[in-house]
Amino acid sequence: MSASDNIRATLRGAGLRVTLTRVELLRALLAAHEPVALEDAARLVGEAGGDPATVYRNLQALTEAGVLRSVRGVGRREMFEPATRGADGHAHISCTRCGRVECVDNAPHPKPPAVKGWQVSDVTVTAWGLCPDCAAA
Ligand SMILES: [Zn+2]
Ligand SMILES: [Zn+2]
Predict the structure, then answer these.
(1) pLDDT tens digits for range 43-97
(2) Distance 71 CA to ligand 2 centre (A)
(3) What is the pTM of this model?
(4) Which of 15, 18, 42, 55 is the most exposed place for a label (fewest CB within 10 A)?
(5) pLDDT band at residue 132, thresholds of 50, 70 and 90?
(6) Would the CA dihedral through 90, 104, 96, 24 be positive or negative?
(7) Ligand nearest to the CA of 70
(8) Residues with beta carbon < 5 A to ion ligand 1?
(9) 126 CA to middle of ligand 2, Å?
(10) What residues have a C-beta under 5 A from ligand 2, the ion?
(11) How far is the CA of 83 from the centre of ligand 2 (A)?
């Protein structure tokens, strides 16, 4: 099965209609090795994506269907990555100066807290600091 077939199967498996924009978005995010913000996603898919509003709607649809995971960067800027990426011990490190976010695998992961009345589905870990570029500047 080719990469495109895999992507189509993933979309169909999530109950999504397969469109060129969605295939290209997922392909771009799988190829990126860090979470991608809307403007970068729009740039990565280029012509296939349509305008940023269309790209954003598709990112939302993919996130709601569980294909993508939304990651918050500096200023709660929303970024996206494939939900299949390292479900266990997957954390993020975010630069407080330039906003760059990278994935960290095998990070220690806290247990979900037990809070009365809540059904906790996920715990996300983000470490904050200066990236190598900003630390050197
Ligand atoms: Zn930085
Ligand atoms: Zn990540």
Answers:
(1) 999 888 788 899 999 999 999 999 999 988 777 789 999 998 876 678 899 999 9
(2) 7
(3) 0.81
(4) 15
(5) very high
(6) negative
(7) 2
(8) 95, 97-98, 100, 131, 134
(9) 10
(10) 81, 103
(11) 9
Residue 109 CA, chain-centre distance (Å), reads 18
Residue bearing tokens 């280029």: 46
| Cα gap 81→114, rounded to integer Å | 27
**CA 87 / ligand 2 centre spacing (Å):** 9
* pLDDT tens string 108-129: 777 888 899 998 877 778 889 9
Q: Which ligand is nearest to the CA of 94?
A: 1
